[in-house]
Amino acid sequence: MISMRPLTDIKGIGEEKAVHFHDLGIRTVEDLVDYFPFRYEDNELRDLRDVKHEERITLEGKVHSEPSLRYFGKKKSRLTVRILVGRYLITAVMFNRAFLKKSFSLGQTVTVTGKWDQHRMTLTVFEVKFSPFNPEQTIEPVYHAGGKVTVKAIRKSIRTALNQYSEEIPEVLPPQIRAKYKLIPRTQAFEYIHFPNDRNELKHARRRFVYEELLLFQLKMQTFRKMERERTKGTAQKIPEDSVKEFMDELPFKLTDAQNRVVKEILKDLQKPYKMNRLLQGDVGSGKTVVAAISLYASFLAGYQGALMVPTEILAEQHFESLQGLLAPYGLSLELLTSSIKGKKRKEILERLANGEVDVLLGTHALIQEEVAFQKLGLVITDEQHRFGVEQRRILRQKGLNPDVLYMTATPIPRTLAISVFGDMDVSTIDEMPAGRKPIETYWAKPEMLERVLAFTKKELEKGRQAYVICPLIEESDKLDVQNAIDVHAQLQFALPDYKVGLMHGRLHSDEKEAVMESFSKNETQVLVSTTVVEVGVNVPNASVMIIYDAERFGLSQLHQLRGRVGRGEEQSFCILLADPKSEVGKERMQIMTETNDGFVLSQKDLELRGPGDFFGRKQSGMPEFKVADLIHDYRVLEIARQDAQALVESEAFWKDSQYHPLRKYLEDEGVLTGEKLD
Ligand code: ADP
Ligand code: MG
């Protein structure tokens, strides 16, 4: 087993060398062959006519002049030699390699790699080979070297290791999976990844390792999922489907196909005897609330209580109103529990909840942490879960509760991330908007165009519409030159004397916030200057203008969320991004906002521009790190691996047959089978 062999088992590596390799984290023969190149250099021969200025190229030619050597000071030198490459006579320059002078002889064929200066017909040489170009070595792997270990030493040791021990490299993928996807054997893949003869071999090696890596990852996730299901007995809710269908038919609108599909997925989960653990993602305005309502109603009919938790109290109140409207007519009793509900009223709600008289409880995410006791909790729905999820699950479990859980999010997560970060969850996606929506028109304006933006806003206000104005900060800050809500509020009050301009930010008390919001939703306030507290969920259909100051400071997903506050009514809505980004990426981000209204496209773009690590913000990243696979480019493989992993762990053969032994052993080594990672 190469995993047990110390490096010193490799010919040419003694104790001393082994220590240097340890510094790179390489301790065993397995570690060494697992040490993959981070890039490859392409040394194909090029025709000089096609080469661009400053490109890195490899040329083959004949030495055409005696080399000339010049010294600068003691150690610095410049070695120049003329080389005839095809019809061209070029100059090859080598710095500080005086020792090479003797190696050149007239008429000899050499291969040189370096940076091309088109104007001087000169190559600054990185590497010389005193032999004709070898087409077998066109692709050169480059490794992260360090300390006393050079790239060359790594290459050489890996070569020896593969020669000595390739027989001992274990295959982990079962034969029929390898056959199905035409994946090359593991031993061969190691050979190709370290010593590819051409791009094609490299491609096959990569293909194999990407699949292997993603399959192992998904096996872990799917095993978690299976074990979690098996160890926590959920409830098989008995849902009278006809009554649910009636409810759906009586809604004031026809559900979209996507809504129908996700409702079906959720109801199916509720009826199964395991705990639902499902992420429902759908863009702003795609109609998640009604899906929540249907689910709560179904659970109610089955005899269970439900809870809906949201990030802010404003949102809790808004949801309360919409759900009340949908569910109260069907005899459900709903209650709202926020921090402003205190004393006797609070006590009474809690009592009725414990008695089972309250059917649906709404509140903020803090709800779950408090001393709230349900009589028979069957379904928990949380909105904007990706900020709170894991913690909540743990709390629920600690309380001995095993309700079905639905996490709703309006921040569309690229599917690759959804199924990797939330790999142990099921994902439902509403990828369709209710018919008849007018897409929001988005413009990007430089700050100096503010006058025009305000004139435009005034026109909308004259038509009876309302406007949001978002600023990144509350108060002026010395450090950051960003617009702040308090200043902007003062400015706009002055600029728009005929309208009432409100101010909203996180430091207001909850009753103050409530008053500001209420005034805006009743159109007593026409313009609302706010920080991002209005980001999620707030619904004022008459608002048709969204102005975002310093828009370059926000992520694409957040801008999209903010934009989603408008476009909720019949009228054409507008979003204006005031921004002066300095970087190309910043400009690209503003540009893409003006080009698409599709949250999934934006989130994918966000992922590409910012990278997976940044996507969820630093604090909550939890992104798995992959060695070969790349979540942006290999997402299709990720999906396939997920399906395969799911099928495997659900099959009996997987847990018995010897061909799956290496995969089971992997799960065991990762501590998955003991269940310790579930908490
Ligand atoms: P979100 O997914 O952002 O939470 P909401 O649930 O708030 O979206 O829905 C946005 C608006 O669309 C609400 O006014 C809702 O009543 C309406 N709506 C939801 N589904 C449909 C539909 N199928 N057809 C028409 N309007 C719908
Ligand atoms: Mg919503």
From TrEMBL:
UniProt EC number: 5.6.2.4
Reaction catalyzed: Couples ATP hydrolysis with the unwinding of duplex DNA by translocating in the 3'-5' direction; ATP + H2O = ADP + phosphate + H(+)
UniProt domain Helicase ATP-binding: residue ranges: 269-430
Keywords: ATP-binding, DNA damage, DNA recombination, DNA repair, DNA-binding, Helicase, Hydrolase, Isomerase, Nucleotide-binding
Domain Helicase C-terminal: 449-608
Gene3D superfamilies, sorted: Nucleic acid-binding proteins, P-loop containing nucleotide triphosphate hydrolases
InterPro entries cross-referenced by the UniProt entry: ATP-dep_DNA_helicase_RecG, DEAD/DEAH_box_helicase_dom, Helicase_ATP-bd, Helicase_C-like, NA-bd_OB-fold, P-loop_NTPase, RecG/Mfd, RecG_dom3_C
Enzyme type, top EC level: isomerase
Example of a GO MF term: DNA binding
Protein's UniProt keywords contain Transcription: no
UniProt-listed GO biological process terms: DNA recombination; DNA repair
Alphabetized SUPFAM superfamilies for the sequence: Nucleic acid-binding proteins (SSF50249), P-loop containing nucleoside triphosphate hydrolases (SSF52540)
Keyword Ligase attributed: no
Protein task: Plays a critical role in recombination and DNA repair. Helps process Holliday junction intermediates to mature products by catalyzing branch migration. Has replication fork regression activity, unwinds stalled or blocked replication forks to make a HJ that can be resolved. Has a DNA unwinding activity characteristic of a DNA helicase with 3'-5' polarity.
Family: Belongs to the helicase family. RecG subfamily.
Name of this protein: ATP-dependent DNA helicase RecG
Organism listed in the record: Exobacillus caeni
Gene assigned in the entry: recG
